[in-house]
Description:
This protein has two helices and four strands, in the order ββααββ. By secondary structure, it is an alpha+beta fold. The protein has helices at 30-42, 47-70, and strands spanning 2-3, 14-27, 75-87, 90-102. The protein has a four-stranded mixed sheet with strand order 1-3-4-2. The mean pLDDT is 88. The radius of gyration is 17 Å and the shape is elongated. β3 (75-87) and β4 (90-102) form a beta hairpin. It has one domain: 2-Layer Sandwich (Translation Initiation Factor IF3).
Amino acid sequence: MQLLTINYVPGREFEALCIVKGSVVQTKHAGKDFMAGMKTLVGGEIKSYTDMLNEARAIATQRMAEEAMAVGADAVVGVTYGSAAVMQGAAEIVAYGTAVRFK
Length: 103
């Protein structure tokens, strides 16, 4: 399964099938959330949140790819990510794009 942020597949013709997406709401436990809050006092990267968001993107991407495979796609073009805070310490990550089948 090819996943591309561009809206074409170099050298390939395809037919568009449908929009596919994957999403997840991810959180860290209260202890890590407390420590992250303390980090805001001194500045710098909050590694536990970076890790959480990287994991959430991977899950959302996998779910999007699975949805594309379910409709018989060979690739997903125009892959885009979005995020939103759901509550303190929790974020929704969504991955979406257009499922395509090669001709």
